[in-house]
Amino acid sequence: MLKQKTMKEISEIKDEIYREFVDKTVVGTEYSDAELYEAIEEKVFEKSRATYIAQPQKVSIVKSIYNSMRGMDVLQELIDDPDITEIMVNGPDCIFVEKKGSLMRYPEKFIDVHKLEDVIQQIVSKVNRVVNETSPIVDFRLMDGSRVNVVLPPVSIDGPAVTIRKFPEKPMTMEKLIGIGSLSVEAAKFLEKLVKAGYNIFISGGTGSGKTTFLNALSNYIPEDERIITIEDAAELQIKNIPNIVRLEVRNANVEGKNAVTIRDLLKSALRMRPTRIILGEVRDAAACEMLSVMNTGHDGSFCTGHANSSTDMLSRLETLVLSGMDIPVPAIRSQIAAAIDIVIHLGRLRDKTRKVLEIAEVVGMDGDKIKLETLFEFIEEGEDSNGKVMGQLCRTQKELVHTEKLQRAGIEC
Fold this sequence. Notes:
Elements: H1 7-26, H2 33-50, H3 55-70, H4 74-80, E1 84-90, E2 95-99, E3 102-106, H5 113-126, E4 137-141, E5 147-151, E6 161-165, H6 174-179, H7 185-197, E7 201-205, H8 211-218, E8 228-232, E9 245-249, H9 263-270, E10 277-280, H10 288-295, E11 303-307, H11 311-323, H12 330-340, E12 343-349, E13 355-367, E14 370-384, E15 390-396, H13 405-409
Parallel strand pairs: 7-11, 7-12, 8-9, 8-10, 10-11
Antiparallel strand pairs: 1-2, 1-6, 2-3, 4-5, 5-6, 12-13, 13-14, 14-15
Helix pairs in contact: 1-3, 2-3, 3-4, 10-12, 11-12
């Protein structure tokens, strides 16, 4: 019985055929996409007549060579895989992916660092961005909404680093989140009432905890007759149920360091666009000043996300962010935060890599010189099953919602 080729043998065959087609292109042979794919296919099958190559390996070789010439090389297959949510390239020889919540090393690699650099320039040029030794860091999004970060040498010591965060074609819904155990039915119904009544909600959590995904799901509860303005560093939100929506995105400075459009600029502009609600994808700088202003000036039902380790830490971090933008007394800042934010939803990623709503808390007001939070729902861990999966559920506490005025004005039962 004939043996399948080893990974090394397959790699050598791919390199040989790839370089043959590159040489043809250099001397002036031109192919359309379809012609190139067919020509590669013929060459691979010709090769298989001289040395046995299994059918699955033939298909893999053809796709790999084609992607090297017209696609994103070894990244193309990863981008096309719907189960992969994150792609991490640490130089030409080291690629990691996150698949179904688990990090794993991808066996393929780029031919050399020059090929990786070519792919980076190909990606960046499609979105009219520039990355080079002078400007070695760039953030942008692809046409499918995937978020990309690129860092080049000399900043990235071991070669070009590329991180691609993919987003599902179909946005997450509350029903799906309930189905995978991220929150309870009771909590979802409670949040639905709050969203419809116009409570200002802040979603906090660490990197990769699912803040944007949860915000997308939560937005499904927004009434369809409202006007929404979304503001983001890189457009990731997938709000589909609102017809009257304006999506705004930050613009980085050009190579001369001019013409940047910041989150603060967009927030100021959004206030003149007659929004019912403003959704800020993430606050990470002095734009927190404008965010609080938005929530305190009649734009009830606004959402925002931010990085923090807990609900309490998020409020403390907001203080710091506001102080970076204006010099006002801390008690005044805390008073503004307490007046602006109604609910904090904290998300986390557990040790089994699952994402959960860990806490839903109400900002009750001021208790002396501190902001008072009351936990309404809390995730209670109940141990692990035989597969190491964390068992537990989001449980209602004994605390009741204090501020029910918005629910009453909306005619919704508490």
